[in-house]
Every structure is written in C-alpha cells, then in structure tokens.
Amino acid sequence: MVEQRNKLLFIVMLAILIVAGSFYSFWQKNTVAEVASSDGVAVKNESHQPEQSDEIFVYISGAVHKPGVFKASPNSRVFDIVAMAGGLTAEADVAKTNLAQGIKDGMHIHVVDKLPVSNEHSATTGTTKTNVGNKVNINHADKGELDTLPGVGPALAERIIEYRQTNGSFTSIDELKNVPGIGSSKFDKMKEKITN
C-alpha cells in the first residue's frame, strides 16, 4: 500500500514537472520571437532612413564680388550664398533675384545685372528702355519683348531667358544660336533686330 502511494506520488510529481517544463519552453519561445521581431523592425526602419549629408555645394555667378562654388548647409537660402560670395555688386538687379529661395545641392545661382543706362529715354517719363532704337537687348529683355522678335514665340522666349540665367549674359548676339530651337536661318531673321 505504501509502495502504491509512492508510485502515485512519483507519477503526480512527474506530471507537474512535464507541465512546468512545457510552460517554460513555450514562454521562452515567445520571448525570443518578440525580441527578434522588434530587432527586425529596428533594423528595417534604420535601413530605410535616407542618409542626409550635412553639406551641399552651390555655384553662384554674375553680379557678386566673388563668384564661385561654395559649401553650405542644406537649409541655407540664396542670401546666405550671396553673403559667402562677398555680397552683391552695385550693378546687381536685386528685383530679379529671389534672395529668400531655398537652395539644393548642385544648384547654379546667376545674379543678373541691372539694365545698362542707354541714350534712349522716354520723352515723358525719362525711363530707360530695354531696346535701343529698334533693337531688343537679349541680355535684359523680358519674355514679352523677346516674343516680338521674328520666329520667337513664348516658349522660345522662355528658353532664351533660361539660357541667360544658367550661362550668364550673352557675350555676343551669335551666342543666341546656342539656345535650343534657334538655328542659323531663324537667327538670320532676327540678327538685325537684336543687341547685347
């Protein structure tokens, strides 16, 4: 009878150990899975974060004292680059330069000159015009004035202004042929009506 009780006690103890072992194993597995899962999320999130550089490079040309390439922080603006370039010259046309514009890596800022003082003045107001005589100044004419040239429409006028902003003032009227869409025949039609 004692032997039977001992056997029963042994079986109960064994059953308790098996249940406890199973529970511990299950708990261990869940904990490891949770840790692995959270690590996986952390790694995934980390890998998708874009690398942000602490510095960018910007080229400034035109009516500034020291044109060139400058290193700046990504949240800089045009006026910061102008200051790095020694400030605007007296000839700079501030109205045509957005000093508050944000900058980006590889950007080219071209500060245009003011209109040159010409002998052509309005009799009533004394204001300076961008065309001398009957000729349109390709370095200072706006879109509307360029549109009056033979063979130039709004789209081509836009390209002329874009070329001017990117490459600086035209050094000769022949340089106008470098603008996409202006071939020799189109240039021949307008060359008598333009000046730089």
From TrEMBL:
GO terms for biological process: DNA repair; protein secretion by the type II secretion system. It holds the Pfam family SLBB. Keywords: Membrane, Transmembrane, Transmembrane helix. GO terms for cellular component: type II protein secretion system complex. Residues 144-163, 174-193 form the Helix-hairpin-helix DNA-binding motif class domain. The chain crosses the membrane at residues 7-27. GO terms for molecular function: DNA binding. This is Competence protein ComEA helix-hairpin-helix repeat protein.
